[in-house]
Design a protein that fits this description.
The protein has two domains: 119 residues, Immunoglobulin-like (Sandwich); 133 residues, no CATH class. Helices cover 14% and strands 44% of the residues. It has two helices and 21 strands. A hairpin with a 4-residue loop joins strand 12 and strand 13. The longest helix has 30 residues. The radius of gyration is 28 Å and the shape is elongated.
């Protein structure tokens, strides 16, 4: 009896192994038809900051594919879960995109800001996965999950300002906050504009690098628009002009040449940068490269 049982087992074992191999092989082949990858520029973000997910869809099916919604299936979307495994539902479950065609062997890359799409309002770690549904193959294809972490940052300045044009009724207010956020190699300055009463966030702008041994110059003009001058590097400054709806009205880099740049209020309540010299970032490196090319040519004198 035991011999018979062992004989049966010895016959069935290769069959079971073969079945498992075929099953794994079929799953690998199916998932290899379309490869989806997701990438972020960094792992750490400030609350409400735009989080740009770059998604690449690689068509390895050997045939052209039309990516489009089909019935209850959206052809493109994200799955996001917290560190404890709880799913984060999208703000709009009917989020949809126009159809897209991907030729055989070709790639399609999309950059999507997931901040307005999901309620990512809690600090901590989130795992993000991009998912693509291919109707002609009847399958979903997902990227490996990638983690991003959301933090508050350190508030260093705050002001509440009224929106012009709301006289005669309840004033519409904006809370303007400047925050710093330390990354691995630099510290960044952020500006957040919000209506705290309604809970609406109008903007969360990263303004660039910031030297933390000083404080940024901040002024509001006659229309309560925000003017910020930050020290971004030794003798280098960034000026930013923001509107109360969160729009970036102007941004310019300055270099300390002769005098240190500073914000000044002018007649009529406008604000301007006084001192320093405007420049385009990178122009010094271009000038040095050009100087290397000219070799022994005499350096031209500056205009009188």
């Amino acid at each position: 009896m035991s011999r018979f049982t062992c004989t049966v087992f010895s016959v069935r074992l290769p069959v079971i192994l073969l079945g498992l191999m075929l099953l794994v092989g079929s799953v690998f082949t199916a998932s290899a038809q379309v490869r989806v990858d997701i990438a972020f520029k960094r792992k750490l973000y400030v609350l409400y900051e735009p989080i740009i997910a770059t998604v690449t869809i690689n068509n390895l099916s050997g045939q052209p594919l039309l990516l489009e919604d089909s019935g209850r299936h959206r052809w493109f979307g994200f799955d996001i879960e917290r560190a404890d495994g709880r799913l984060v539902p999208p703000n709009n479950p009917d989020y949809a995109l126009a159809p897209a065609a991907v030729g055989a062997g070709e790639k399609l890359t999309r950059a999507v800001n997931i901040t307005p799409l999901f309620p990512l309002r809690d600090f901590g770690l989130y795992r993000v996965k991009a998912t693509v549904y291919v109707a002609s193959l009847g399958r979903h294809f997902s990227s490996p999950p990638l983690g991003v972490e959301i933090t508050e940052g350190r508030p260093i300045w705050q002001e509440v300002a009224g929106v012009p044009g709301t006289e005669g009724g309840k004033p519409e207010l904006r809370t303007i906050t400047l925050l710093t956020h330390k990354l691995s190699r630099s510290t960044r300055l952020y500006a957040r504009i919000e209506d705290k009463e309604s809970g609406k966030i109008f903007a969360m702008h990263q303004l660039g690098t910031f030297l933390t041994f000083g404080r940024p110059d901040v002024m509001l003009d006659a229309r309560n628009e925000i003017h910020i001058l930050q020290n971004s590097a030794p003798k280098h400054f960034i000026y930013t002009h923001l509107g109360l709806q969160g729009e970036v009205l102007a941004q310019q880099s300055y270099m300390e040449v002769g005098s240190r740049p500073a914000l000044v209020k002018q007649a009529g309540g406008s604000v301007a940068v006084q001192g320093g010299r405007p420049y385009v970032p990178g122009e010094e490196a271009q000038a040095e490269a050009a100087a290397d090319k000219v070799g022994e040519r005499p350096v031209p004198l500056p205009p009188q």
